[in-house]
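Table S2 (continued). Query chain:
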Amino acid sequence: MFPDLSDSRQAWLALTLLDGVGPRFIQRLLQEFTAPQHFLNADPAHLRALGVAPRILDSLAALHRRDSALLSQFELLLDWQAQPGQQIVYLDENDYPAQLRQIADPPALLFLRGDPAVLYDPQIAMVGTRHPSPLGAETAHAFAREFSRCGMNVTSGMALGIDGACHRGALAAGGQTIAVWGTGLDRCYPARHRKLAEQIVEQGGALVSEMRPDMGPQPGQFPRRNRIISGLSLGTLVVEASLNSGSLITARLALEQNREVFAMPGSIHNVQARGCHRLLREGACLVESVQDVLDVLKLPLQAVLQQDARTDPGPDSPLWRWLGFDPVSPDWLAQRSGLAIPEVMQALLDLELEGLVLNSTQGFCRARP
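Corresponding output:
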């Protein structure tokens, strides 16, 4: 099937298949031609005079020659869009998310699986390291759960670590969450999150990508998708991140998009907190509770995160006074408490079984109330 280049939707699909066409080029194109079909039908000499790259012109010529590879990709997109529960959201249509349209380089197309209505609700982006501490993962889950209870959708990248914890936290509250992929929606990455993706859709959330459905993971795609995570959201909260974490890219993009950036402080001994500390030094809003975020965003939502009123959840444990929210070793606890190592390990096991202590490779710490 040759694209009907007078039809706006088919013109958008054909345009995005051309070699060398990306979001920045499309913004330039719209300033000159106002609609993709005008560009696709323009005289090649006029396009050359405008400085359009040769590879784009070659690809456009191949489209008009009805190149079999391009036409095959075009038909695949039409077939994908026709499947139940799947749709493509187009940049020039009214149902394109207003928040995302405001950024400098919005995607021309959004491939979506799930409920598109969630894209228009208030969203908070939550991101962080793929290798969180146990407390970091638990904190991400807890905050996402409470944001969801407050009426905010949680948006993240469905990566391992903090992203996955955030999606699961929102689902645990019975809420909706949006996963922005760095691959096409037919190529779940990481593969172990396939079940999580199904749960997101089943619970009324959405999977979103600007990549063609059949595209697998490639270098550069994941930083590129970060602008969509921050662009859909009113603000970005970095839960736990090292200095070289991709989450700092998302935070920078949020600032460029004139969105709020939030960060959680952590232990000075935790390398996965140093990225957050850098953001805080640079002016990010310090977050200790969901209410901190709601206050800055000035949303008409009620926070439900309540501090546990218990002042001593482990009154019978001789170790409780020595345990905080930063991991410590059993040897350190033995020195402070005066107990023998076997006694320390038994006390820690009892607290862990009660759900009051977290055990990790870094040591033992209190579970967040």
